[in-house]
Amino acid sequence: MPRGPVGIAYLFFSRLALAHYHLGNYDEALHYAERAIAIRRLHFIFVVLIACLGKLGRVDEARAVLSELAASEPADPVRYWQAIHPYINPVNREDLIEGLRIAGVPKLSE
Question: Which of 29, 68, 93, 103 could make an SS bond with 20 (beta carbons 3.0 to 4.6 A apart)?
Fold first, then answer.
């Protein structure tokens, strides 16, 4: 993995994606999620990417990456979910879960 700003760019892109997702800017959110996933293929980035595709009605595309989401699932998904997605407002958390459900995520770590 590259060091320096390029090496952590996936973090910034993934958080930009999540911010745009919660603003309802799903196309922009998808753009940043794709940029993040191109750098690092991590579970939390797949979550945002797939939720974006769900909200955009691009379910076939979302289903094409569901296996990567499952393969990247952490050992303790419940604890991971709480650490990575610590929402103060449960409406935002439910909005993310809704995108995942639309996309066809078979089960959610809650």
Answer: 29
Place of tokens 């569901």: 66
**Within 10 A of 39 (CB to CB), how many other CB atoms are there?**
19
The model carries a pTM of 0.87
Which tokens hold the place of 109?
């770590």
Q: Residue-wise over 89-98: b if at least 16 C-beta within 10 A, else e?
A: eeeebebbbe
Q: Fill in the DSSP letter of residue 104.
A: T
Contact 9, 1 (CB under 8 A): no
pLDDT tens column, 20-56: 999 999 999 999 999 999 999 999 999 999 999 999 9
Reported residue count of the chain is 110
Contacts of 19 by beta carbon, 8 Å cutoff, 6+ apart: 29
Whichever domain contains 33, its CATH number is 1.25.40
For 98, residues 6+ apart whose C-beta sits below 8 A from its C-beta are 51, 54, 55
